[in-house]
Amino acid sequence: MIKSMRYVFAFLATVIISHSAIAQKKELTNDQYFKNNFKGITQSLPVFKKWVDDSHFIININGKDSLVDCKTGKSSQVVSAPVEAGGEKEAPAIVTKGTDIYLKQNGTETALTNDEAKEVNPTLSPDNKYVAFTKNNDLYTINLQTKKENRITKDGSETILNGYASWVYMEEILGRRTRYRAFWWSPDSKHLAFFRSDDTKVPVFTITDAPGLHGVVETQRYPKVGDPNPEVKVGMVEPEGTKVVWASFNEKDDQYFGMPYWKPDGSSLLVQWMNRLQNNLVIYDVNVFTGGKTEFYNEKQKTWIDLDDQGGRLTFLQNGTGFILQSDATGWNQLYFYDMKGRLVNAITTGKFTVTDISYIDEKKGIVYFTAKGLENTARNDFYRVNINGKNMERLTLGDYNNNINISPNGSYFIATYSNVNTPTRMTLMSNKRNIIRDLGNSKGDDFDNYNLAKTEIIRVKSDDGIYDLPLKVTWPVNMDKSKKYPVLISIYGGPNAGTVMDSWSINSNQQWYAKEGLIQVTMDHRASGQFGKEGVNYMYHNLGYWEMKDYSTMVKWLVANGNADAERICITGFSYGGYLTCYALTYGADVFTYGMAGGSVTDWNLYDSHYTERYMGTPANNAEGYKTSSPITYASNYKGMLQIVHGMIDDNVHMQNSIQLISKLQDLKKDFEFMPYSGGRHGWGGNKGLHYQNLKTKFIYKNLLQKDVPKEMLR
Q1: CB–CB of 209/234 below 8 Å?
Q2: CA-CA distance, 496 to 642, in Å (whole number)?
Q3: With 505 labelled, which of 206, 401, 412, 649 sits at a CA distance of 20 to 30 A?
Q4: Is 516 buried (19+), middle (13-18) or exposed (0-12) by CB count in 10 A?
Q5: Is 60 exceeded by the pLDDT of residue 2?
Q6: Residues 438, 413: contact at Cβ < 8 Å?
Q7: How far is the C-alpha of 659 from the C-alpha of 661, rounded, in Å?
Q8: What are 284-295's pLDDT values in tens digits?
Q9: What pLDDT, on the 0 to 100 scale, is given for residue 31?
Q10: Cα 709 to the chain's mean position, in Å?
Q11: Helix (H, G, I), strand (E, B) or coil at 354
Q12: Mean pLDDT calculated for residue range 115-119
């Protein structure tokens, strides 16, 4: 902390001393500010397109494709060769037109379906012989050779979903990228696994909007905390079969199922099971022919285990000797090597750092390439390799930068795209021996050093209890005057393991304009943001809101004491979980935060979905006090600043009910606030309503923080 304070004081002093030198630099013009035009200051990087083989790749430079030889670093322009007659056949692809699906191959399209019902999530089998999809909540396949359509299930209805996920499973477990798909081909294409969800007991939530004469009404099966969840069965079936083999689970049990994994040879299905409390994960090996199951892996934690891994928990070795498992059971996400029977062989990585991804596994040499943050800096991603036996770990990236990595097919080379807050993004080709082969691009323009740009830096502030060095990313006002106080705008999301402070380069017109206008712009991460592993995130257990606000308040007080922040003009803004924390800051944290802009906010965790909320909070039955103290509504009487509340009227994720209940409480207390509903808006919205929302926030910032009229150029 002392070092960080000295750094800031030194920076401020330098600004004052070198004012005359800075004045000689060019100021940004309105064209640059309002059209996001930084030509000459920054420039585009090449676009990586693909690896051709282990030592050649294609990048696009100024609109032209170039083939780069990794061994020599030399490049040559790519010339597309004509496709010879009688050459290799084009791989089949599935396209959707209207409500039907078509097979596209060798330049022709063939209709596979022709009916009024909509086919959803058409997915090719790995051998390209079948396509699976859902229709009217039943699972179907089509044989692409015979064009025969096979109806796998026949009980699909409004509440029975075969191969189509219930809302809470899509949102919280399988992920939005699945688009509700809940079926998975085996690697050998001989079987389909799928979820059958029974939503009958899941309560219905009614959503209304205002269009037309009688308005619009939507209904949604949405389990809130303590409500019955969907009853899920796990089925397995052959591509043209009608006999479904059900995994031997009791669908009436209070449980969850994560995305299943097929074993690489398709011989059995690994099913992730979790209890309702979400503190015990068991992976079962399920027999594809009988549905019988045996325990394959079992993990318990005192708090919770994340189930929504979206396919990253297990990585199988192609040689069939075992798999790599990721787990944060020690308090930090690490890698472990298991044999194919689910027995631990050894830990691959250990320590107080977070493995973020497995990039490549060299099975012949027994080396794992991975990215991680926290070994050098919790706000930077670096690239490493380690022997699969856990020995000889080595950092491969260089310098104090945050890195994105693209590794060659056999791991001999990698492209590092890297930056920090003071260094515009660069791209470099390196060998796995840490040798730089060739610099591929630099986004720093020739005119960069000639402009008076706002300064951004990462600052660390010691937490109140002295345990954590909390990170802030601060963009300071241009030509900052040490004798003045400046308003602060804090942009956050803030949820568990959802940090946003990374030591990386960024520049945009809003950032630079507001710095010119005299606004201190901040993002900050609390102890449970993921910066400090699961060890830090665990603080949130049964206690959402408290630690975030404690750490945020500590950092704001530091800015007031050391960064020329005006304690009367501290604004926090966020959407979704960030909206929740904004509302909490203006109520529970009202002695520190004076202004807030909250969008799509949870205001009482009783009102959010079962899986997400209970993971952290338990239920009102076992954590009644936690639900009370985590709600902004509980502390509404403390509110004394100005809060702008916005919500989409048909938000099906965080229902507008949340904002309305907080508003009702503030009205009962005769408190002033701002409220703007958006008709047709879900959990976010675009178009002119999106521009209206941006203008709304701009006007709020000028009125309350900058305390002057909005320039017309700022309104869209």
Answers
A1: no
A2: 26
A3: 412
A4: middle
A5: no
A6: no
A7: 5
A8: 999 999 999 999
A9: 84
A10: 36
A11: strand
A12: 92
- In angstroms, the CA 388 to CA 686 distance is 47
- Which DSSP category does 396 fall into? -
Is the Cβ–Cβ distance between 271 and 283 less than 8 Å? yes
Interhelix angle 546-562/2-17, rounded to 10 degrees, is 40
* 3-state DSSP assignment of residue 262: strand
**436 within 8 A of 418, measured Cβ to Cβ:** no
- Residues 105-110, mean pLDDT to the nearest whole number: 87
Cα–Cα distance measured from residue 335 to residue 338, given in angstroms and rounded to the nearest whole number: 10
Strand order in the sheet with 595-599: 456-462, 469-475, 520-524, 486-491, 565-575, 595-599, 642-648, 674-678
**End-to-end Cα spacing for the chain:** 41
Structure tokens at 379: 């706000």
Measured between alpha carbons, how far is 307 from 305 in angstroms, rounded to an integer? 6
SS3 state at 618: coil
CA distances for 399 relative to 141, 414, 416, angstroms:
52, 16, 12
Cα Rg, the chain, nearest whole Å: 28
Q: What is the pLDDT of residues 412-443, one digit of tens each?
A: 999 999 999 999 999 999 999 999 999 999 99
Residue 156 has a CB neighbour count (10 Å cut-off) of 20
In tens, the pLDDT along 122-140 reads: 999 999 999 999 999 999 9
User: Tokens for 88?
Assistant: 């290799």
Report how far residue 271's alpha carbon sits from residue 278's, in angstroms, rounded to the nearest whole number. 15
- β-pairing verdict for 381-387 and 394-395: antiparallel
| Residue 32 confidence (pLDDT) | 87
